[in-house]
Amino acid sequence: MKVMDRIRATTVGKSIFRVPDRVTERDRAAGHWASFLLHIYPVKVRRKEITFRYTWFLGVASLVLFGSLVVSGIYLMFFYVPSPASAYGDIQTIQTQVAFGQYIRNIHRWSAHLMVLAVAAHMARVFYRGAYKAPKEFNWVIGVVLLVLTLLLSFTGYLLPWDQLAYWAVTVGTSMAGYVPLFGEQVRDILLGGPTVGSATLLRFYVLHVAVLPTLLVVVVTVHLWRWRKDAMLTADSEVEDA
Amino acid sequence: MPDRDPQLLDANTRVLGIVPGKPAAGDRKVLAEDDPVMVWPHLLVRHGVAALAILAVVLFLALSFDAPLREIANPTNTPNPEKAPWYFAALQELLAHFHPLVAGVLVPGAIVIGLVALPYIDRNPSLSPNARRVARTAFTVFLVVWIALTLVGFAFRGPNWGWVWPWQEWHGEL
Description:
Largest interface: A-B, 94 and 79 residues
Oligomer: heterodimer
CATH architecture of the largest domain in chain B: Orthogonal Bundle
Number of strands of chain B: 1
Number of helices of chain A: 12
Structural class of chain A: mainly alpha
Shape of chain B: flat
CATH superfamily of chain A: Cytochrome Bc1 Complex, Chain C
CATH class of the largest domain in chain B: Mainly Alpha
Distance between the termini of chain A: 46 Å
Mean pLDDT of chain A: 90
CATH architecture of chain A: Up-down Bundle
Number of domains of chain B: 2
Strand content of chain A: under 5%
């Protein structure tokens, strides 16, 4: 900490951090507002919100897992081509010849499963402490959107290894879309790009998995966190309801 | 890093005013649950520890268990059983008992719509568990049923979706 204080005090340090001497809470709040990384946080939260038993830190866990997925996923993208001719072989190459390939693939796989669990558990925890109540109703709705996006991300990623497990899991999963009344056939055709899972499906799922869905997720998470910050010091009790 | 209060009272300082709700130096109040605390450092430190803990879990899992890779996809060779990913196992289990329109469309649709509508249906403002018996019971029943269906579909179903004991034949796929 002493070292950081010294660095902050230099001309260069002042220009980077723009933080005043941290003596009072007001100084620290000012430093907080001036920091790009910290500005996604509220300056203050209620004391109960920092305890483990209140949140179990499941929201942070979901976000960290998403970060781990982005990093490991980008590494895997360098070695993977989404076509039935090469996809399976690429995964074999990743596992046997790419530096740390097997390990990075493991990280991606287990982070994905854990993220589904963490997001679902986050939702349950929010329910049980009643944190979806006024004035935070809409942030709960955004959370439901995030749960659906997480499931779609996991499901589209499931097809990419192009092994028997992937192929038939996606066949089963998408067959249900065919039962949507009236336009079920069309829905399935749009998902699969044909009557069965094939090269068009692989390409579609890949584009959704690495571009469309992650971008959507980042945008929606941003709104989710922004609302969390704005609501941090509001009460969720009868006083608000009466107003 | 402990909080540092303003250093008010050396010999040459006059006290110009007292901010209500703030402790004077040396007079820390005991914080109640709803009192505000500074995010930096109190929440940031905890988030940092939580992030490192979840990363440790991931790195440990990745060292211990390899991600599965079966034979190359073969559209002419359907495995028995065919299994959806584990988070859709409950839906697949329902599919074995109900018409596909119910299990594949109505139930998932109702769950998503129900979750979205929850804060607008439950207008009870109370946060106390005792005053929320109905909501808590309904949600708990849903969770228990869903987890049970997921477990059955994931671990207790074998060829032709017949019942198997997971300690005798393992058909779960991750």
